[in-house]
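Q: I have 429 residues here and want to know how they pack in 3D. Can you give me a structure?
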Amino acid sequence: METTVIPFRGLRYNLEKVGEIADVIAPPYDVIKPEERVDLEKRHAANIIHLILSQPRDDDTENDNQYTRAAALMNRWISDNTFVRDTTPHYYIYDQSFHAPDGKHYTRRALIALVQLEPFENKVILPHEKTHAGPKIDRLNLMRTCHANLSPIFLLYQDANGDIEQIMQGFTDENAPQIDCPEIFGSTHQLWCLDNPESNREIQKLFSSKPLLIADGHHRYETALAFKDEMAQNGESETSLGYGYMMVNLVRMESPGLAVLAIHRLLSDLTTDQINHAIGGLPKVFEVHEIDSLSNLMAKLGTFKGKSPAVGMYTSDNKYRLLIPHSSPVGQLDVTLVQDTIISKLFKVESLADHISYTAYADDAVAHVKEGSDRVALLMNPTPVEQVLDVAMAGSVMPQKSTYFYPKMATGFVLNLLNRNIRHKSDRN
């Protein structure tokens, strides 16, 4: 089937009204801690946080609740020109420049566009992780009231020759960004409106044969599919309106600006018997090499990246271990080895939610273990993005937190109204 990636009329902040863009954007809704949410609410009355994380109240009713209040606020911002909608369809080019925890500097380039929704079985949009019901219900309720994509999801595409990025580069070389935001949320941010019709037609054509891999946003993609079906049952046409599409950030899989980090597993509330059973059982499954320091462990672990499975372990007796399996199935992923063999079989952990947390920082993992004798850190290599694609193409999914594409993309630069063909008085000339 053909992949449909199209330009659209984005809804964007009117900077003449709100002032600095840094004051109204936010990280993605699902990584914002309560204290960070409060700070963002205080930063600006029109910060996007008021829409993406509107808060419940004790006296909420069916007609007055966190979701209806978000929709009313969004509509008010449209009416008073806080938000202004572009009058013609654009692609939007979004650059983030940042230093990653690996010490390297990156610039990641994304194309913000609409993609036509397809069920996973069509193998046009590919998932790689399982989802849970709770987050989907929350986002569906918000979509039902707002009829908008308030933030894009993150998709990857293959482009060995870099044809699409070359078109974008040609435009950004000749045009200044409309938004040039200093560092906030771990990166700088630049945004261009790609308004060259010939370039846009070429980009749309180039995407038509490319499957797209969901890097981040599985819950919101499944929510958009469910909402499209709801609207179809209500008699709404997905072709005349926008319910058959959603807003996405598209990043080239081969791009040197794509930083993929490891996500280390932190085990807590383990019994002494669990720890002793696991450590005693290691030699049956792994070559066990004791290493003298964290830096040396991570260096040795890194030599296995993308080649063969290997895992690091740190325990409260201040021992660093490199674990190399005696044997493993062809193509086995490190995250699967850790989940199925170490966590489930050796540590006998059944409830992940009660015992596991995650970090991208090895130092944090070690500090976590030093806080209690009931803790163990499992240190990982990042999952190569090619392996993620192979799993998705095979119709399989990976354990949760298998990938970490760093950093998160900010929310608030562009929104998408799902009734995208209807004109608003806020339309930008």
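Q: Anything worth noting?
A: The longest helix spans residues 218-233. DSSP finds 14 helices and 22 strands in the chain.
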